[in-house]
Amino acid sequence: MEFAEQYLDSINVPGNLFITGLWAPVGLRYHATHHLFMSMPYHNLGKAQRRLVNGLSDNTLYLQTLRKGLWDALRRIWSEASAATR
Q1: pLDDT by residue for the chain (86 residues), tens digit each?
Q2: pTM of the full predicted structure?
Q3: Which of 71, 68, 13 is closest to 46 using CA atoms?
Q4: Quick one: which of 39, 41, 48, 58 has the most CB atoms within 10 Å?
């Protein structure tokens, strides 16, 4: 995979600090951001993600990785898998 394809194959689910932290305790919340900055400590990824969303002049590629929550992530995974099998 190309770097951009690998990045877009990952997701960020910033969600609610407490609720999202229960079903995605480590790694998934900022997984796509981790692919951009692999050496950045996990506890800094949330701040980096917020800066990228608000600071990039063209953040369309970055925004493609954001999911609102668990159900949004699962719905998109299901629809992408269904489209790939057609």
Answers
A1: 788 888 888 899 988 878 888 888 777 799 999 989 999 999 999 999 999 999 999 989 899 999 999 999 999 989 988 998 87
A2: 0.80
A3: 13
A4: 48
User: Which pairs from 69-77 meet CB under 8 Å and 24+ separation?
Assistant: 69/13, 69/15, 69/16, 69/19, 69/20, 70/13, 70/15, 70/20, 70/23, 70/24, 72/13, 73/11, 73/13
Joined tokens for residue 42: 């996990």
Determine the pLDDT at residue 22: 87
Task: Choose among 48, 47, 60: nearest CA to 8.
Answer: 60
Rounded Cα distance between 27 and 23, Å, is 11
Least Cα distance to 73 among 44, 40, 31 occurs for: 31
For 40, the token pair is 């950045």
